[in-house]
Amino acid sequence: AQTVTQSQPEMSVQEAETVTLSCTYDTSESDYYLFWYKQPPSRQMILVIRQEAYKQQNATENRFSVNFQKAAKSFSLKISDSQLGDAAMYFCAYGGSNYKLTFGKGTLLTVNP
Amino acid sequence: EAQVTQNPRYLITVTGKKLTVTCSQNMNHEYMSWYRQDPGLGLRQIYYSMNVEVTDKGDVPEGYKVSRKEKRNFPLILESPSPNQTSLYFCASGMRREGTAFFGQGTRLTVV
Description:
The complex is a heterodimer.
Chain A: E1 3-5, E2 10-14, E3 19-21, E4 24-26, E5 33-39, E6 46-52, E7 60-61, E8 64-69, E9 74-79, E10 88-95, E11 101-103, E12 107-112
Parallel strand pairs in A: 2-12
Antiparallel strand pairs in A: 1-4, 3-9, 5-6, 5-10, 7-8, 8-9, 10-11, 10-12
Chain B: E1 4-7, E2 10-13, E3 19-25, E4 31-38, E5 42-51, E6 54-57, E7 65-66, E8 76-78, E9 87-95, E10 100-103, E11 107-111
Parallel strand pairs in B: 2-11
Antiparallel strand pairs in B: 1-3, 3-8, 4-5, 4-9, 5-6, 7-8, 9-10, 9-11
């Protein structure tokens, strides 16, 4: 069974600085997707960024980018120029061959003004 | 507007009283799924469906039922709710080839 591990329960960053959230996963599959979701206090689940495993190029969405290391099974999220609105719980998720999503337990990000 | 709609958003019920949480998507997605979110446990999959009339158990299916009679709808049924089913529930849908799951806004269920 696939597992997703987020080793940082909490992180904090100063406004305008850069922060990196870590995620590792375990799988025997070669074709899969990886995701980062943001959950603000409203509890809505918002897709931040996704990565297809067969693509070597790291995904980027505006201030959000990932560092995908397939061999190491690592998928970290970098947030540049952090803003107060980035404060939220962030979940890493794995989507495999049957497209069942497996989530990590989350990292709570605090942005300090 | 493309969306996943769950109803109700909030529900307080009593132990043993059957309830249904509805989920509907307007994006013609093949895949739909239900998750529950609990403090310290993260999101756990309850059931999922890859297409009409095709459903399968997730990680925590006990006490829940689902059906997929139409592509757009995927209701979650609790036939005899218990207090340990108090949780925040999410429905999600997506397309396999896009590899993306879109979430509904969540249903906060309290069973007393």
